[in-house]
Write a structure and sequence with these properties.
The complex is a heterodimer of chains A (about 140) and B (about 80). Chain A is α+β, with helices and mostly antiparallel strands. Chain A has four helices and six strands. In chain B, a hairpin with a 2-residue loop joins β1 and β2. The chains are: A alpha+beta (about 140), B mainly beta (about 80). Chains A and B meet through β1, α1, β2, α2 and β4 of A and β1, β2 and β3 of B.
């Protein structure tokens, strides 16, 4: 997929190293492969609207940024609920497909690789029902 | 006696040790905050430079160095938290 991951928390680089060495490397062979950023003070998180000033920590914000540096999608959760990595991957695959088609294709609700895309244009106006039905949105 | 409470960062109470805490009303009013720019999809991401730990090394990461690549930027509350 050719995607770079960057993680960010308010912890120092030293704590990132300890967390990687003492816990995460027991879950991920070889340790964390991506850069773990340190945002002490929360300035970076504040720029993305995910820093909680009262708690002094970042919320679970996830931003998909395209090769032009534009944010294509984001999701922000409060701390106790973890994200769904599969959904992030699905969204990236969809954004990549749209980009490769130079906007010629769009992915309808529930799309995932292998499912049909739509080709927006004058001929499709009012005719989506002929080629796509709501049951296709579900797995 | 410290009471158990939600974990957060250390922050001053605004008062001095042994003196009653100042309430926010007694403090000079904060200057009006700079209006925050909202994140918008389809618009450029805020650039940044940040210290980082990456595969055994202390390094620096600049978002604009990743132009030409897809990036997933993930914030989370803290190392050694549970989720």
């Amino acid at each position: 997929m050719g995607v770079e991951v960057l993680s960010v928390s308010v912890d120092s680089m030293y704590v990132h190293k300890m967390w990687n060495d003492h816990e995460l490397s027991h879950m991920v062979e070889g340790g964390i492969p991506f850069a773990m950023l340190s945002d002490g003070g929360g300035k970076l998180g504040a720029a993305y609207g995910v820093y909680d000033e009262d708690a002094g920590v970042e919320n679970r914000g996830r931003f998909i940024i395209d090769p032009d540096g534009a944010i294509q999608g984001y999701e922000v959760l409060t701390p106790p609920v973890g994200r769904n990595v599969g959904e992030t991957l699905r969204q990236i695959q969809a954004f990549q497909l749209v980009r490769e088609s130079k906007g010629g294709e769009a992915t309808p609700s529930g799309w995932k690789p292998g499912k049909m895309t739509l080709k927006p244009g004058p001929d499709l106006v009012g005719k989506v029902w002929e080629v796509w039905q709501p049951h296709l949105a579900r797995d | 006696m410290a009471e158990e409470q939600a974990v957060g960062c250390a922050r001053p109470t605004g008062g001095l040790v042994g003196q009653p805490n100042q309430t926010p009303e007694e403090q000079p009013p904060h200057p009006p905050k700079e209006e925050k720019k909202m994140i918008q999809v389809g618009k450029p991401a805020p650039d940044f430079v940040s210290p980082a730990y990456h595969k055994g090394k202390f390094t620096s990461v600049k978002l604009s160095d990743y132009l030409g690549k897809w990036v997933v930027l993930c914030f989370y509350p803290g190392d050694f938290t549970f989720v």
